[in-house]
Design a protein that fits this description.
The complex is a heterodimer of chains A (298) and B (278). Chain A folds into two domains: 41 residues, no CATH class; 239 residues, Orthogonal Bundle (MetI-like fold), CATH 1.10.3720. In chain A, 73% of the residues lie in helices and 0% in strands. Chain A contains twelve helices and no strands. In chain A, helix 4 crosses helix 7, helix 5 runs parallel beside helix 10 and helix 7 runs antiparallel to helix 10. The radius of gyration of chain A is 24 Å and the shape is globular. By secondary structure, chain B is mainly alpha-helical. Chain B has a domain of 182 residues: Orthogonal Bundle (MetI-like fold), CATH 1.10.3720. Chain B has 15 helices and no strands. Chain B is globular and about 75 Å long. The chains are: A mainly alpha (298), B mainly alpha (278).
Chain lengths: 298, 278
């Protein structure tokens, strides 16, 4: 707003440039440069350590879009998101409503449900691996008590991705819960009184007439944020399934990781990164839009 | 919300919340419980929380001797501490300049920060790796720390905070003859403590738990961060000796969980803020 202000003084300007230049340099070297370089690399056939690098135009992308494993990976990532996003958003919303409406124990519940969000996911993935153990795991042992045979959760191609999605929901529901709690606090209490005077007497009526419409922008925001987070699924895949069995849990970041850092196909891995980046940026723009809407409601 | 409500409603609400809690916390409870049990009780299908024969000492001793658990934790402290310190060093001056000083190009530079916020951490991974490879820094602490020195989120958060500090404070300081560096160091820094703490929570949780980057750049066991160390331990065990393995995961998860329990409010606020970062 004061850009190029004629009244600014040279001393202030010099100090400003001195203060900001380290950040500027780091931005260029560590973030902007590499992010552009990945686009350039995606147009080459380079492999790490190879002496030659040729520009092959969109060759990597052609190869990528013709690759069945890539499409499998792309669809798996979306299926994962389509399970985790609604699961964790609705769970988060339900928890926020139940806890905020409680007369006591709110801080306790909030902390307890939030615990999985901050705990080290890799360590917890190792714990889940044990819980999901086909014969001695807690889950199958409990299921057996009620007469259900759990089977192998991580080695069954039809189940593995959904098992990982379950862990994803477990891990992220608490985050959505606190985001919704912030949204609930912003609803003016007199709206509920007004709704009651207008005849919205049941809990459900009050939710339908006040909470849900007022929470709309927050819900959109939480949904997009969950989408971005779950699109980046990697940790549980690397620890629990390595993309298997039969590529059934192959997801985008995992494919990128194996191509770029196991096979060192740098150019090809870069092309996958670009696809990943495009999707995340598209979701982020949605998030910015959702954020704008949310602030209107204050 | 519903301020009144029947007794039945209250009972139902807490019943649902407590039942959900059992499922959410089961992994933690079972992890601790298993870390106390001898193998024959772990492999029995009888469910009990506490062991009949305690094997806590054996399991934890084994966990600490099989892999250098303390070393992993120390690495975690060095890496997260190093990252956070350098992030502040870069972000604080920039945030102050963006919030309080007038200079040509300020709006463009702030737009850069906003763009930086949008880029997911994995996007620049390949070129960063190539750079570290070429200067021979792979498999070092530097490889774990340097790529994260620039934090768009840190600059953004601090700038928003500095915006709320009244200009009069700076004017008075300038009249007293203080330069911009001194104003930042002596006046702004002490004021910015709450914002720095909020950023600290986010930075530390993010980098303590980060797995993707350490997995890529670290080969040597001695340099493993806690998540990578957990994976080394799991692979070593080949998934059979669950007692010590669970003892190891207890030790690895304990620092952040304890920190969280000690400073819940700040944690939740901080992570809620970062939720906006995605």
């Amino acid at each position: 707003m004061t850009d190029g202000n004629p009244h600014d003084n040279p001393g202030e300007r010099r100090a400003a440039y001195a203060l900001i230049s380290p950040a500027w340099a780091m931005f260029v070297v560590l973030l902007a440069g590499p992010s552009l370089a990945v686009v350039v690399l995606s147009l080459t056939d380079w492999q790490l350590g190879a002496p030659t690098m040729n520009f092959i135009g969109l060759g990597n992308y052609q190869q990528l879009f013709a690759d069945r494993v890539f499409w499998k990976s792309f669809t798996n990532t979306f299926v994962y998101c389509l399970v985790v996003v609604p699961g964790s958003v609705f769970l988060g919303l339900g928890l926020a409503l139940l806890i905020e409406g409680a007369t006591f124990g709110r801080a306790f519940y909030r902390a307890a449900y939030f615990l999985p969000v901050t705990s080290t996911l890799i360590a917890m993935a190792v714990v889940w691996e044990f819980l999901l153990h086909p014969s001695v795991g807690l889950i199958n042992v409990v299921l057996e008590q009620v007469g259900i045979t759990g089977g192998d959760w991580l080695k069954n191609p039809g189940k593995a991705l959904f098992t990982l999605a379950g862990i994803g929901i477990w891990q992220s529901a608490g985050l959505n819960m606190v985001l919704f709690m912030a949204g609930l606090k912003a609803i003016p209490p007199d709206l509920y009184e007004a709704a009651e005077i207008d005849g919205a007497s049941s809990v459900w009526e009050r939710f339908r007439c006040v909470t849900w419409p007022m929470l709309g922008p927050a819900t959109l925001f939480v949904t997009v944020v969950s989408g971005i987070r779950s699109f980046q699924v990697f940790d549980t895949v690397e620890v629990l399934t390595k993309g298997g069995p039969n590529k059934s849990t192959e997801v985008l970041l995992y494919t990128m990781y194996t191509e770029a850092f196991n096979f060192f196909r740098t150019g090809y891995g870069s092309a996958i990164t670009v696809v990943f980046l495009v999707v995340v940026l598209a979701l982020t723009l949605l998030q910015v839009k959702a954020g704008e809407k949310r602030t209107h409601y204050g | 919300m519903t301020r009144r409500g029947s007794l039945l409603g209250h009972v139902l609400r807490h019943a649902v919340l407590l039942a959900g809690l059992v499922i959410m916390l089961a992994p933690f409870v079972w992890m601790i419980s298993t870390s106390l049990k001898p193998p024959n009780e772990i492999f029995s299908t009888k469910l009990s929380l506490l062991p009949t024969n305690w094997a806590a000492v054996e399991n934890y001793t084994k966990a600490f001797t099989k892999v250098p658990l303390l070393r992993y934790l120390l690495n975690g402290v060095i890496v997260t501490g190093g990252i956070f310190f350098l992030q502040l060093l870069v972000a604080l001056p920039a945030a102050y300049a963006l919030a309080k000083l007038r200079f040509r190009g300020r709006d463009i530079l702030f737009t850069m920060v906003l763009i930086g916020l949008m880029i997911p951490a994995q996007a620049p991974a390949i070129p960063r790796y190539v750079m570290l490879y070429q200067i021979g820094l792979l498999d070092t602490y530097a490889a774990l720390i340097l790529p994260f020195v620039f934090s768009a989120f840190g600059i953004f958060l601090m700038r928003q905070f500095f915006k709320t500090v009244p200009d009069d404070l700076m004017h008075a300081a300038r009249i007293d003859g203080l330069g911009e560096f001194e104003i930042l160091w002596r006046i702004m820094l002490p004021l910015a403590m709450p914002a720095m703490l909020a950023f600290g929570v986010i930075s530390i949780v993010t980098h303590w738990n980060d797995f993707f980057w350490p997995l890529i750049v670290i080969q040597t066991g001695d340099l493993a961060t806690p998540p990578l160390g957990t994976l080394f331990f799991r692979n070593e065990e080949a998934g059979s000796d669950f007692g010590p393995l669970m003892a190891g995961t207890v030790v690895i998860t304990a620092p952040l969980v304890l920190l969280f329990l000690a400073a819940q409010r700040r944690f939740i606020e901080g992570v809620t803020l970062s939720g906006m970062k995605g």
